[in-house]
Model the fold of this input.
Amino acid sequence: MSAVKIDGRKVSAEIKDELISSVKDLKEKGINPTLAVVLVGNDPASQVYVKHKKKACEYVGIRSLAYELDENTSEDELLKLVNELNTRDDVHGILVQLPLPKHIDEEKILLAIDPSKDVDGFHPYSVGNLSIGRDGFVSCTPAGIIELIKRYNIEIEGKNCVVIGRSNIVGKPVSMLLLRENGTVTICHSRTKNIKEICKQADILVVAIGRANFVTKDFIKEGATVIDVGMNRLDNGKLCGDVSYDECATIAGAITPVPGGVGPMTIAMLMNNCVKSAGKCLT
Ligand code: GUN
Done:
C-alpha cells in the first residue's frame, strides 16, 4: 500500500483562490488589504522568499508595499520604519523578513511590530495568545500544517501527535495548535531518548528537525499521517525533507512531499492572515 500524497501546492492554490473573493468583498466595502514587506540587505534566499510573497499578494489582490533597504540600515532607521507602518491606517500587515543583518537585534524589531499587524505571528503577544487559546495571529507554517491536515479530512482530536523539533517558528507553535485541536501531543528534540519508539506511536507525526532523511520507515506507524517540514539542500543541489519519503510512503497513510508539501502553505497562510487583519477594520 502506498500513502496518499498530501498536495500542498493544490491546497495552497485553493486557499489563495478563496481569498481572491474575500479580498474583493473587502474592496467593495472600501478596504484595500495591504501588506508591508520589509527586506534589509541582500540575502539571496530572503530575496527569493520576498519575491514569492509579493507575487502571491498580486495574485490574491492584496496591495504590497515593498521596502528594500540597504544592508547598512541602522537598527534605529528600521525601528522608525516599523513605527511608521504601525501608525498607518492603510497598512494591515507588517512583515520583516528574517534573518536581519547581524548588527540589528531581531527580537527588538519583532517586538516593535504592532501585534494587530503581526501577520507573521512572531510577536510574543501572538505567541502568548496561541498558548492560552485566545484568538490572534498564528505563524504561517504551523497554521499551514493544520490546514493541510484538515483539508485532507484527517482527524486530530484524540490522536497521538508527535512533533520532532522545538523551534519557536515551527515545533512549539504546531504543538500548541495540535493541542488546541484536542490531539495528545508529545514533543521530541535532540535530547529525547527512544525517539524512534515514541514516533512509532504517532497517528500524526510532524517532523521539523532540519536533518535530511532523518525519519526512516522504522519510525512510522502503519497508516500514520507524516508531515515533513524539512527543507534541506543536498550536495547535488536537490531539495530534500527531514523524512525519507519513498520508504515512509510504503507504511504511512498520508505523507507530504518535499518540495510541494508544507512549503507552499506558508505563503497561503500569510495571505490569509493579511485578509484577516484587513477584515478587522470592519468590526
Ligand atoms: N525567513 C524565513 N521564513 C520566514 C518567515 O516566515 N517570515 C519572516 N519574516 N522571515 C522568514
Remarks:
- The pocket of guanine is lined by residues 49, 95-98, 120, 140, 266 (CB under 6 Å).
